[in-house]
Amino acid sequence: MSSKTITVDKDKCNRDDLCVNICPIILKEKPDGYPAVKSTEADSCMSCGQCVAICPTGALEHSDISLSDCPPIEKKLIINKEQAIQFLRSRRSIRTFKSKPVAQRVIQKLIEIARYAPSGGNEQNVEWTVFNDKSKLEKLTALSMDWLRYEITENARGDVASYAPHHDILNDWDSDSRDGILWNAPAVIIASTPADTHSAMVNIAITLSYLDLSAPVLGLGTCWVGSFTDAINKWEPLKEEINLPRNHTYNYAVVLGYPKYKFLRLIERKEPVIRWQT
Ligand SMILES: Cc1cc2nc3c(=O)[nH]c(=O)nc-3n(C[C@H](O)[C@H](O)[C@H](O)COP(=O)(O)O)c2cc1C
Asked: What residue ranges line ligand 1, CB within 6 angstroms?
């Protein structure tokens, strides 16, 4: 028995077929010239909202999507090509932060933006674990350093070369308490998904990229922290402290804070390697 319903208000529908043409899955029936969905198929709809968003007359009624939650796209807010390119090219990792804390409502706002990221099958099941308490963050750094020390002393087995970055971070920590893992950031955010999610790690990466790209809009900066993510997944005392939901085996962390410095120039990257196939 289907629980989702997708119906067309025939008084509003102008039969332009836009919804039929963009819906990849279910809007295929047109019994009387109007788009329709078999009730048996409605549950295979991903609730992506493309049908609602494409309709110029607001004729689509979807049980999962309220038209009042779908404001029109405002032309005056669309950024131009140069703005888009500079915005994307000027994004940088931030590793030096002001000591100013990041308030919960600000982090909430950032996550509210990041949740518009796409996800496989529109599952939208990336969840967030946030730390923004200074003493807690100090504890997370100390535990991460414990992990590094263990990796170097117990796990390296003479493989000094591949552990060189670990050595540097630990030396800096031991000599002058320089935090090369969480970068003394006022907040750390961990995105995670349940283990049984399709495309789990990709969903996390895209959602964190949205968060990363949105941060400057709120005056914030981020840095992905693979080393901390490694520590979370390999060091039991840290894992316990982070306390992700038990089945969230996929996760990744970024640090967050108000950048202390501003970058003034764009930089170059490697030329893309492209194979044009014929
Ligand atoms: C998946 C991933 C993991 C990363 N892990 C770390 C890390 O553990 N520590 C760190 O300081 N930077 C880390 N970075 C930041 C990269 O070093 C940085 O993105 C890269 O050098 C390019 O610099 P930019 O981000 O300023 O353009 C990571 C970035 C990515 C995408």
From this structure: 92-93, 95, 223-227
